[in-house]
Amino acid sequence: MKAVPIEQRLTPKRSHIHGWGLFTKMDLPKDSMIVEYMGEVIRKSVADAREKAYEISGEGSCYMFRLDLLRIVDATKIGCMARFMNHSCQANAYAKIISVDTDQGKQEPKIMVFSNTDIKAGEEITYDYKFPVEDGSLKCSCGAPNCIGRMN
Length: 152
Ligand SMILES: [Zn+2]
Known about the structure:
Bound molecules: zinc ion
Strand content: 25-35%
Protein name: [histone H3]-lysine(4) N-trimethyltransferase
Oligomer: single chain
Distance between the termini: 31 Å
InterPro entries: Post-SET_dom (IPR003616), Set1-like (IPR044570), SET_dom (IPR001214), SET_dom_sf (IPR046341)
Keywords: Chromatin regulator, Methyltransferase, Nucleus, S-adenosyl-L-methionine, Transferase
Helix content: 10-25%
Main location: nucleus
CATH class: Mainly Beta
């Protein structure tokens, strides 16, 4: 993963699911590490406030990923391509939080995205957002045969 720059492996393109999607330019065998979901780590209360602000300013999509109960990764402003990933009920990738040792000898959580099946070059990379039910039901239009019509 480190050897090949991200621009040569992945590309954002218009998706039939929603807006922009993340597509792979190369074949990815099952269990490949695809990309890190990078962004700014913020507290839940800050995330809630920002979400409202993004809504009001009409910034459109907001890209947030729950790290744990207290922390959220906000990729809206400083994220990488990973934020373009769409939800699908038949996802071909999954996100996993792993602990990485920092230079200071501390542990830092990182969100890594892995393939859960063989993905062919040109295919869109999707994962199951697994939104908590408290956020209300969001409509899903992924088009998978097993689509349940909502994201949670
Ligand atoms: Zn669906």
